[in-house]
Amino acid sequence: MNKTLSITLVVIGGIVMSALIFGAGLFAGSNIPGLAGFATGGIMGRGNAYQGYSMMGNGYNMMGGNLAANVKPLNVDQTKQTIEGYLKGLNNPDLELKEIMIFDNHAYARITEKSTDIGAMELLVDPVNLSVFPEYGPNMMWNLKYGHMSGYRGMMSGRNGMMGGNGMTLAQTPWAGVGGYNNNPNSVSATMTVTSEQAAKAGQQYLDQLFPGYQMAADADPFYGYYTIDILKDGNPAGMLSVNGFNGQIFLHTWHGTFIEISE
Question: How far apart are CA 72 and CA 11, in angstroms?
Fold first, then answer.
């Protein structure tokens, strides 16, 4: 199977998996007492130690199996070179690599806009074949500007996108019941009704209930429609969660393995 077809299948699987994970997350959230008036969601597991902490461990991949389990982890230089090549293919000079996190089962990259410093997308790198693909979960489902339904059409690999056709991005407040689509991603505002402080507070309450002893990092990284925040254990990264920027729903990233290193 050629690499392009492989990545296409992974992306399609990711969309399906994101929907399934969201459904499971919403079900789980309905059984947890409300956190400061916010909805909750997400599923979680536990894994084996590598060099650091891991809250999630086995990490579901887009196709439903383990994401590159028991492989040699990537390093920062490999990941940086791979991501920069991917961004070059997007032909958008406003996008830049802001952060790399290496886990034992893949590498994570946070991409921001140079002009705004707002998060554009979150990417994962497969350590086996160095394929780059959009992170599932909030990055696909809540990202109003660069998500999988975005008019940008770039997150599927290149501005024209593997999926073809004109993409659409949900209106800015679809969670509040506002319908319609926005075919111009450049019109999407970065303004959200949930502040970064509220997002961090809700995330900490979530952890206190379900993972006592884990803490939110000081910074909540804003994206178009949500925040992603690092989870710490004894001051060291252990995972991530995202908070919806309009209704405060919490989504735990369950696919990351054990943390190894970070580069900003």
Answer: 23
pTM of the predicted structure, to 2 decimals: 0.73
The residue range of the domain holding 223 is 3-263
Tokens of 180: 């319609």
Beta bridge partners of 132: 125
H helices of the chain, in order, are 3-29, 76-90, 138-141, 196-210
Cα gap 227→119, rounded to integer Å: 9
What is the SS3 string spanning 185-211? HHHCCCCCCCCHHHHHHHHHHHHHHHC
Tens digits of residue pLDDT in 46-63: 333 334 555 554 433 333
Write the pLDDT tens digit of every residue in 7-51.
444 545 554 555 555 554 443 333 333 444 444 443 333 333 334
What domain count does the chain have?
Answer: 1
